[in-house]
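Entry:
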Amino acid sequence: MQLRPLFGHDAGDFLFPAGKVSGFGFEAFFDVAKDTDRPFIIHSEDFETRVLGTSFKVIAFEGQEHTVAVATGEVSVTWLDEEVPQSALLTGGRAIRRNHETGETIRANIESNYFEEWKSGALVFRGMPLSLIVVQLENRYGVNIGFENQEIASRRMSGTFGPEESLDKILNMLGFVEKFRYKTVERSHYVIY
């Protein structure tokens, strides 16, 4: 199985003896061989992803919507925050996003180049709320980004930015499209307004 961190280059191979990853605050790509005797399971804030032999990406940051996107094979996703847990089966080229606060679930098709762009180090956003984009930018650039107006944080945006793009360039481009501005409060602290 391969685990790719949010930023940097390939992390290499990691061994997960129990076949489980738990927690949140990550964005990772997994390539897992089928093993019916020892299924691979990812637990995060409010869902479980059971791997049925596949390659897929998980985005799971605390307080943000969670995404599972399948490149090849199948995964089963179960929401654990329901009185009666709900499940969905995803196959290659499909994704599901879930807002843990509202329970809203959105299924979508994935572009064929999505995973390759992301694995090459690009930041890839598809219909993602700015609040989650900001979390990824904070992790990539080692900064803090806040909002003066929370309405801006919920706006959904799409875009692909190469690994060489500067934070200022990304914020300028997103701000131009979505009609917001930003300012630097301190050396590594930004505010979107």
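The chain has two domains: 1-119, 122-193.
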